[in-house]
Amino acid sequence: MFRKNCTEFPDKDILLRDGLNLYFINAFRRRVKFDSRQDLFLMHGRPCQRVYLEDDGHWFIQEDGKLFIELDTSIPPWTVQPPDKYCIDTFVYEDEDGKTQTRLDALACFLDETPPNHFEVRSTCMLLSCAFILVTVAVYAWLPELRNMHGRVLMAYLLCIFIGFIFMASMQIMLTIDNITPDICVVLTIVIYFALESAFFWLNVMSFDIWWTFSGKGGMTSKKMSKRFCAYSLYAFGVPTILTIILTSLEFSGLPPHPLLPMVRYQGCFLFGRSKLLYLYGPMFILCLANIVFFIMTAVRIAQIKQQTEMLKSKESAMHDEHRKDKQRLLLYLKLFTVMGINWILEVISALYPDADYIWCFTDAYNVLIGVTIFIIFVCKRKIFRLIKKRYKQLKGEPMSRTQTTSIRTMCSRDDVRMSSVKNS
């Protein structure tokens, strides 16, 4: 048990030797038996850097020494602070008549308090990841053969991740140097929220597109590709826009404080706690479930196609070659979905357990691996290296062999004839 005081003392040896001659105020709801000399020892000073004053009287000390605080607007309507996360002291104030009064209040720590260097490490990890993401986008934008539907969707997804990480790193750098205002916090939160939600909606587009490819709903000509991409863009950017408008409207609605409201200006930069789980991770969870359903349906369709084309195993078969390439694309999407799914799980765990430093360290390290992993999956392949080499020769004006020209022409026309055989089957 702790006998706690919020005041800093210059000479703690005097306190330990002579103690404090203070009167005792019962802060327990039920009677607790203990020896004040054996069961209590003195702690002085604030337990952490960021504390808030619990002065409404809706608190008491539990039998195990933890501080129980009643919160009418929270779910559940209480919180419990461990013994090393609060202090109790007598505070002087003036009542309505101007008379000086004393009152016993508690100073409680913010449970989401992070280590001083946490923002620096996290922002550095995100910036390193952004570098690899930007290189991946540059490669796909530079090579004409990769600017098909798959490449366009991938670039849109990566750009959303890039914008979200850049603005989040900027926010954390500004927090580190203590150069940020509540208005800037809200603006950055809106941009980050829209970018991250859009990224997960583009991931959902990938899952749908690969299912559509194997379902035999229809072929993809070059003319239809632009219309299809516009429809995908309307979905992947439109729904996050609606969610962002709802978030912003609730933030500035002027409603009384409630745990289901964003309250970005009152809880620090970005979403926090249950509002973060509801507004950010809630839609992401639904999209992850939808992606799993699309992948399962695609796997079932692949098994059906394999049975239907059992007699067409020759590598010269165009149908077999198209199926093989689309299965490779499915494998890439599964890898990407796994990478981002693990990131989503780590972020949720970090939000649920903000005091677990080892989880934060693992999450920060994984933020670096996101960009590196995406770069390895989509760029570090022999096919990409060959295309880069061909593109470089084209820019230098070097002639290409007939085999290279035929290969490029075949790759460019792939989207014009894809899955027509599946539809016929």
What does this structure look like?
With 425 residues, the chain is mostly helical. The protein has helices spanning 12-18, 118-142, 149-176, 182-215, 222-251, 264-267, 273-308, 318-352, 357-378, 382-396, 402-412, 414-417, 420-424; strands at residues 2-5, 41-44, 51-54, 59-61, 67-70, 78-81, 86-94, 100-109. α2 runs antiparallel to α3 and α4 runs parallel beside α7 (273-308). It is elongated and about 90 Å long.
Relevant terms:
single chain, 425 residues, mainly alpha, Methuselah ectodomain, domain 2, Rhopdopsin 7-helix transmembrane proteins, 2 domains, 3-stranded antiparallel beta sheet, elongated, disordered C terminus, GPCR_2-like_7TM, (apollo) hypothetical protein
Architecture blueprint of SSEs:
Layout: E1 2-5, H1 12-18, E2 41-44, E3 51-54, E4 59-61, E5 67-70, E6 78-81, E7 86-94, E8 100-109, H2 118-142, H3 149-176, H4 182-215, H5 222-251, H6 264-267, H7 273-308, H8 318-352, H9 357-378, H10 382-396, H11 402-412, H12 414-417, H13 420-424
Helix content: 55-70%
CATH architecture of the largest domain: Up-down Bundle
The helix/strand class is mainly alpha
* Intertermini distance: 75 Å
The CATH class name of the largest domain reads Mainly Alpha
Q: What is the third-level CATH name, the topology of the largest domain? A: Rhopdopsin 7-helix transmembrane proteins
Topology as H/E string?
Answer: EHEEEEEEEHHHHHHHHHHHH
Question: How many strands, what sense, and barrel or not for the largest sheet?
Answer: 3 strands, antiparallel
Compute the number of structural domains.
2
| Overall geometry | elongated
Mean pLDDT: 73
- Number of E strands: 8
CATH homology superfamily of the largest domain = Rhodopsin 7-helix transmembrane proteins
